[in-house]
Design brief:
Elements lengths: L1 E2 L10 H8 L4 E2 H12 L3 H12 L6 H15 L12 H11 L5 H15 L11 H8 L4 H14 L19 H4 L8 H11 L5 H14 L11 H12 L6 H19 L2
Antiparallel strand pairs: 1-2
Length: 266
């Protein structure tokens, strides 16, 4: 049944209410779900409104976009790392809603993508693999989707979502290092260091620092134009364990003594 939306404007729902009032007609279910959301702004009602809007055959594609954009603008803050659902249908509704947001919201998207991937929930829609699900359902590239998932799985949701949290995009260059599985890489130390530096350093500087770490731990070939002394020194550093034994320290002192002799020679 088509219905003209009509509700008293409220502070929280003003924009959504105005958007709905400018649409000539919509299904009873859609109208009611929007009214419920404005009267009681909680995440469950956002999901109900999204489902109703998306399956409303009375609404044009452009009007659906107007309503969903209004939802994003006003109610995205109702989604957080502590209220990620478990069932596939709700996960899918939420990740589609979050897929056009930025900053912390894309990590919320990553959290929901990870749950769909890890539990193979994409099979509910007939997809044989996660890649096919992302390609057909989400308006982001596969590489972007995997970056979102890795940021959540590698750094943990506790790293983000608060006032002084780092810019997540700055930490992407570290992912291949922290996921490499190399025992000699001090992952926790690197994570702590770069989470702190991401608050003050530029993305360019962090990317360069990450590149040097990749060279140091053999994850990236040393560029041919690199000075031979730098190549030799990086190779030397790469063979040392993160925790030095007494014998290791003795050897290093001996190397330093030999280098000092070279510096003092004419």
């Amino acid at each position: 049944m088509a219905k003209k939306f009509d509700i008293i404007k409220m502070k929280r729902g003003k924009s959504l209410s105005e958007a709905a009032q400018n649409i000539s007609s919509m299904d009873e279910e859609t109208s009611q779900s929007i009214e419920n959301l404005i009267l009681e702004p909680r995440k469950g009602n956002v999901n109900n409104a999204l489902v109703a809007i998306n399956r409303d055959q009375t609404l044009s594609k452009s009007n659906k976009k107007i309503l969903i954009d209004s939802l994003r603008e006003q109610f995205a803050d109702l989604f957080n790392f502590n209220n990620c659902p478990d069932d596939y249908e709700t996960l899918k509704v939420e990740l589609l809603f979050l897929s056009e947001l930025t900053q912390v919201s894309f990590l919320l998207l990553g959290q929901r993508l990870m749950k769909i991937r890890d539990n193979e929930l994409y099979r509910n829609d007939g997809y044989s693999d996660f890649k096919s699900f992302v390609t057909n359902e989400i308006k982001i590239s596969r590489s972007t989707a995997y970056n979102y998932i890795d940021l959540v799985s590698v750094f943990g949701v506790q790293t983000f979502g608060h006032v002084d949290s780092p810019d997540p995009s700055k930490l992407i260059p570290l992912l291949s290092i922290l996921k490499s599985g190399r025992e000699e890489i001090p992952c926790e130390m690197i994570k702590s260091q770069f989470i702190e530096e991401a608050r003050t350093k530029s993305a360019r500087d962090i990317k360069e620092d990450a590149k040097q770490l990749k060279i140091k731990y053999g994850l990236l070939d040393t560029p041919e134009h690199t000075d031979p002394f730098d190549r030799a020194f990086n190779s030397l550093l790469n063979v040392f364990p993160s925790k030095l034994s007494a014998l290791d320290k003795k050897k290093i002192r001996n190397y330093i003594k030999q280098l000092n002799s070279l510096l003092e020679s004419k």
